Amino acid sequence: MAKASPWYRRLGGGATPAMLLLILMLGIYAVYEPSALTSFGISNLLNNAIVLALAATGLTIVVLTGEFDLSGAGVVAICNVMAATLSMGAPGSMGTLGLVLLVGLLVGAINAYLIAILGLQSLAVTIGSLIVCQGIALVLLPAPGGEVAEAIISGVTGDLFGIPIAGIMFVALALAWTFLKNTRWGIAVYAVGADPVASRLSGLNVPTTKFIAFVLAGLCYGAAGFVYSAEIGSGDPRISDSFLLYMFAAVAIGGTSLMGGRGGVRGSLVGVGILTVMQKMLFAIGVAEFYTNIFNGLIMIAAIFFGQLSPLVARIARRRPA
Amino acid sequence: MSPALQVNAISKRYGATTALQDVSFELKRGQVCGLLGENGAGKSTLVKSISGVVWPDTGEILLNGESYRPRSIVEGNRRGVSTAFQELSLVPTLSVAVNLFLPHPERNGLGLVLTRKLEQRAAEILEEHGVRDIKPSVLVGDLPLGMRQRIEIVRALQRKPSVLLLDEPTAALSDREWLFGLIDKAVAEETSILYISHKLDEIRRLCSRCVILRNGRKVMDSDVESMSNDEIFTNMAGRSVVETFVSRTPAIRVGLAPRLEVRNLKGPGVEDVSFKLAPGECLGVAGLEGHGQSSLFKALVGLSPVTGGTIAVDGIHVAIRSPREALKHGVALVPEERKSEGIFSDLTTMANISMPVIDGVTRFGLVNRAAERRAVGAVTPSVNLSERFLGYGIGALSGGNQQKAILARALISGAKCLLLFDPTRGVDVGAKQNIYAMMAAFVRDGGSLLFCSTELDELVHLCDRCLVMYRNAIAGDLPREELSQDRLLSIASGFRPQPDVGLAAASQKGA
After folding, report:
1. Residues of chain B with pLDDT under 70
2. Which backbone phi and psi does A163 adopt, to 5 degrees?
3. Do B258-330+415-511 and B5-93+139-237 have the same topology in CATH?
4. Would you call A195 and B102 a contact, using CB atoms and an 8 Å cutoff?
5. What is the pLDDT of residues B359-397, one digit of tens each?
6. Rounded distance, CA A259 to CA B170, Å?
7. Is A265 a domain residue?
8. Residue A224 pLDDT more than 70?
9. Which CATH number do you get for residue A115?
10. Which residue of B has its CA nearest to A181?
């Protein structure tokens, strides 16, 4: 009846249209900006994309379970000001990394407790935690400033055996998710997002599944905040505000259903790629910067449109011989 | 030896309603016990209490003589209690194989679940249980309801439970003999089964004992053989309702243009279907599950694309691209899956019914509640839906009352042609009678019915004529005089239309 999906559909992790779009845009970008495909150009691109990639990965996991998480931008803000105020002091680079991840974990766990265990609505809870986190960031560092330790900057933006660290992180994210989604927990994530009632009757532990998702998401946001600090080298409690919409945009463009149960991290990574490359491409073509948002939005709508289109085409194709 | 399952005086309340009150019974090893009751009698709550989904407020359950208080389904499974739920507990976006092994699919040393291995195991398990037409790699959501029900049953059975709970297992099943075979086999292996069903013939075929619930209380617990059908119905309903079919005189209006005329209709799952439906006629549609009945109904109201052929309403050719357009031409569909396609579960019953005419009862864009009430009040008597339900959220109603509300909605739209898809599925005896009465009144007043049912006796008794579908096409068209369950079943199983084909042979082929 239903056949295994062909290779070209598996390539983008269910986000084939987005993948094609990314390749197209990379092509255009490369035509206008010859340095785009040099190792410097690629490394630059990856460094620009990795923060959003980490954050969008966390968000994707939560969205797959059928919940929302807006706290990501807040966690990034806290972690950024922490890195800018602590990393030159006693904790050092590694200590800062540990503390930052701990904060992400903590926020994730609080969200998780309120949503998965107490059953509160995720949208409302995480709006709350977003605002609280942004507030804490302002308390820690009321005005832009501070300094991030050089070791962090060079460690995160540098190379390892000639490969940019950001690229390694990208691959690691994709591989980690490929692994996780094939574990029992990963299967449960998709099941819970698609049909929580059936999942419960099937014996799946819905609260635990969601709990783990929120905690992992918190960790991802913490990591994103840390890497972000390395990219900009200082602290700014407000700079991550625009982040939130881009996280959701990346998830949606990557083909993950905001209703849960469908999609995946690989799609979101492609979505992050599209958002990043598009800005560069438009800049290279010479489109003024304030037009980029218009294109961002249009691309997102178009990507969702094509994302809807491909299952439709598949369904019609499948029915014909029947 | 202690009984396999012993339920002692359990009670369960949900807010103000008492779902179960002091219910006790015993299930002996290797026994099949029927559990009967109208919708809302507490059967599902009892099943959920035993399986670990809900926790009874008071009372105790003993399993093989030992205390048993499952806090989750998984714990129930571990203790050897397994359930096939009425609402089907399969996850639509996962494959058949993964669903079969939820919640704990086998994993390798790294913690990975290997799909290919699961699919192999699943294929073996399906084969063992006599399911040969379902591929383990297919997503459950892509399967028709009947196949999903079979997987639900296989999943419960493959855990080799000592106590098996089957909640309305034949509601969407066309081949009941398959299930009966499995049950006989399980019983031979000392499995104890609690069998919930509305269908008396199944209870008589399978069960030695039966328990009847009414309004959350046990009203009867005795041998099936010693009870007459009438006794059982009386106990279920608390009044004497016998599931009989009141014969009615045909109301077909001759000489008028057909209400609905379909010629060479083609589309996904529909191959070259032609028929005429006269005003005042009740035309049945029979067929084993997945032979195009559902596709045909969907094509008729524009839910799936029509690739060829014509549809004419009252002699005029029409193009129907959506249920809204169908309604404009007076054709209304009462869909198959009540829960997902039929009701707006967060709205009141009133709002659910008045939906099609809501434009007509507004003043300055606001709903005029009095006019709405009048409009709804005009149709609820025809389906015998009590006024007191109108203010409740429809989700709180029993299946039977929900179905009545959906039928009331179809009536209120003023449609002259109703397409009823299995309107009595999972509906209690009393509500069934109400639905039959509504159908009879509808055709008497000149309305037309296209009536698909999985219950052959309904088709035989209610229809003026019956189409039989096989492999997405019409394989037979039987007039009232020739209608019999055997004939319908043999044609539906792919035999050429000829009399005297035995039931047994037909059902074997159907499996």
Report:
1. 1, 15-17, 38-40, 237-244, 339-340, 426, 495-511
2. -105, 130
3. yes
4. no
5. 777 777 787 888 888 888 888 888 888 888 888 888 778
6. 32
7. yes
8. yes
9. 1.10.3470
10. B112
Interface predicted TM-score (ipTM) of this complex, two decimals: 0.80
Check CB contact under 8 Å for A187 and B77: no
Q: What is the pLDDT of residue A321?
A: 41
CATH superfamily of B5-93+139-237: P-loop containing nucleotide triphosphate hydrolases (3.40.50.300)
What's the gap in Å between the CA of B133 and the closest CA on chain A? 9
For residue A313, pLDDT over 70 is answered with no
Contacts 24+ apart (CB under 8 A), B132-139: B134/B96, B135/A1, B135/A2, B135/B96, B136/B95, B136/B96, B136/B97, B136/B100, B137/A2, B137/A4, B137/B95, B137/B96, B137/B97, B138/A1, B138/A2, B138/B95, B138/B96, B139/A2, B139/B92, B139/B93, B139/B94, B139/B95, B139/B96
**Chain B: residue nearest A194 by CA?**
B93
Return the pLDDT at A89. 82
pLDDT of residue B503: 41
Answer whether B144 touches A (CB < 8 Å). no
Q: Do A4 and B137 touch (CB under 8 A)?
A: yes
The CATH number assigned to the domain with range B258-330+415-511 reads 3.40.50.300
Per-residue confidence (pLDDT) for residue A8, from 0 to 100: 45
Note whether B439 contacts A: Cβ–Cβ < 8 A.
Answer: no
Domain count, chain A: 1
Inter-chain contact A191–B139, Cβ cutoff 8 Å? no
CA–CA distance, A238 with A135 (Å, rounded to integer): 10
User: Alpha helices, DSSP H only, in B266-329?
Assistant: 293-300, 323-328
pLDDT at A232 over 70: yes
B74 touches chain A (CB under 8 A): yes
Tokens coding B442: 């509808």
- Write out the two tokens for B168: 């309305």
Buried b (16+ CB within 10 A) or exposed e, B126-137: beebebeebbbb
A interface with B, Cβ–Cβ below 8 Å:
1-2, 4, 179, 182-184, 187-188, 190-191, 194-195, 197-205, 261-262, 316, 319, 322
CB contact under 8 Å between B92 and A190, yes or no, is: no
Whole-number pLDDT of residue A229:
92
Domain ranges of chain B: 5-93+139-237, 258-330+415-511, 341-414
Please report whether residue A305 resides in a domain: yes
Mean pLDDT of A96-113: 95
pLDDT tens-place string over residues B324-342: 889 889 999 988 777 667 7
C-beta atoms of A191 and B135 within 8 A: no
Residue range B458-511, pLDDT digits in tens: 888 899 999 999 888 898 899 988 888 778 877 877 765 444 444 444 444 433
* Domain span at A198: 10-312
